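Shift notes (night). Ran Acyltransferase while the centrifuge was going.
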Amino acid sequence: MTPSVTGTTPAHAAAPTEAPAARRDRYFDLLRALALFRVVLYHLVGWAWLPLLFPSMGVMFALAGALMARSLERPALQVIRSRVRRLLPPVWVLGAVCGTLMVVHGWRPGPSAVFWILPLSDPPFLAAEWAADMAEPLWYLRAYLWFVLLSPLLLRLLRRFPWPALLAPVALSVLLSAGQLPLPGRIDSAVTDFSTFGACWMLGMAHQEGLLARLPRYVVPSLAPVLLMPAGLWWATRHGFGEPGVELDGIPTAQALWSLGAVLLLLHFSPSWQEWPQRLRRLDGVVTLLNSRAVTVYLWHNVCILAAATLWDRMWSLDALSEGAPWLLESWVPVLLLAWALIALCILLFGPAEDLAARRRPRLWPNGTPLRKRGSHTR
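Came back to this:
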């Protein structure tokens, strides 16, 4: 599992225009864009240290939790309906493409195919690499959907029992890892994802509620890098991390502890950006595009990586390259560039579904250029 992959929150909230929230938007957007880029890079190169350097999934769930808490200033049912409406159409586009291809290859839909329509559980797919790559990202949207549905309850618990509510998912992860709570196969993945990233979601809510701001300034820098992150690393090494084929993503409790500590630091040092700092303004278009098309990028990046690697492998048939520049053919950099080119194509083809889901006029390349022409660097 990689969170695998990821954003905006998968549906960016239409938030109230209160000043503190607005000041954090640019920073949140930057974190989300970095998280998406890291997900794509990790799925291509598979370096085990990347999730330690930047725990993308924990970051994306925390940002989503903060935006959800902000949105819940409106009636809960209205917020949930809006989020689900924004999430599902891009999933249906992926399901239509993947389902059609699987039918062509002999797949016959059964009752579980309903999870391609409402991803509350894992959808079925063929035992083929391309089909698995298309279906894999749905784990994140499934987890996101459950967090959205549970958020009114989670926010109520956080307000009443802040620290027990924040740490409860980690405790649940420990119990699951110890085999103390056997679960049916159909719900096992959903509960595991909740226990792994629930604390990050709750941490985002706590940040939005001002709970972290009430802590003494020394608490987070003392707690996160000294207790939580070392505990996650210790748990990971106890469960084979560092051995061939063992990744942090495959050790839920270690992922939960490390992500919680890292996200706590990122939120603690969160700058107040009403506009981009001068040195970062050149990133505005890329960051805006990635945030506007986060669901599309996340849903399609795996299959783009597979296609890019397949196309690049065919370059070995060119003698000029295979004999004159084998180092280039062995490099991952051209594959990454080709994968992003294919992702850009998917943004053009499938991205407007995100606008239709949000009831906006469809845009092919929403990088914020019209806003900059008016001299503004904010939404």
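Residues 1-24, 371-379 have pLDDT under 50 and may be disordered. Residues 280-373 form one domain.
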